[in-house]
Every structure is written in structure tokens, then in C-alpha cells.
Description:
GO terms for molecular function: hydrolase activity, hydrolyzing N-glycosyl compounds. By secondary structure, the chain is of the alpha/beta class. It has helices at 22-27, 56-66, 80-88, 92-95, and strands at 9-10, 51-52, 72-74, 98-100.
Amino acid sequence: ESCKVExxxxxxxxxxxxxxxxNSKRNLKPFFGTDxxxxxxxxxxPDIKVIKEENAVVALNRIVNExxxxxxxxxxxxxxxxxLAIKSFPCFEQxxxxxxx
Length: 101
């Protein structure tokens, strides 16, 4: 907000494509803490009003197609939404400039 840059936020998948069995879940230690953010303490409560109505996978496909060959995806977490976009939209994969993991 201080830079006056609007970054769109879309709600994506809330679960993995393949569910782990119970034994794997017990042995899995959260890499970024139990909250996914390293259990960092923040004084500010996020404003969820900024979350757009459009689904993240649909938005990702729309944005990539509006800017074919120009979009670089920097992936810092699970790749579920990207996997769903590739599976749902046949031209999605060819329209991305690069994926950085």
C-alpha cells in the first residue's frame, strides 16, 4: 500500500491434489511452521476484503493468456494451483515465459 502498487490476491486450492496417508501425515513436519508462515507474529490483521472473487486457477490462466510469453511464475509454496491450471487449460503451459521454483 505504501508503494501504491496493487497486487491482486486470489483464493486458490485449500488442499493438495493427492492426500497423504495417515502415517505420512504423522511423520511430516511443517517446513514453514504450523501456520505456513514460520509462526511469525504479526500485529496487523490481514484485510481479507482484498481477496478477489475469481478463482486463483482461472485468474492465473486468464492473466497468462492476456500476456502470452511474458509471465514468469515465482513459486514459493505448493504447486497445486499451477498443476490444476496445467491440467485444466491445455494451452496454459505453453503460454508461460518461465517457472522459477
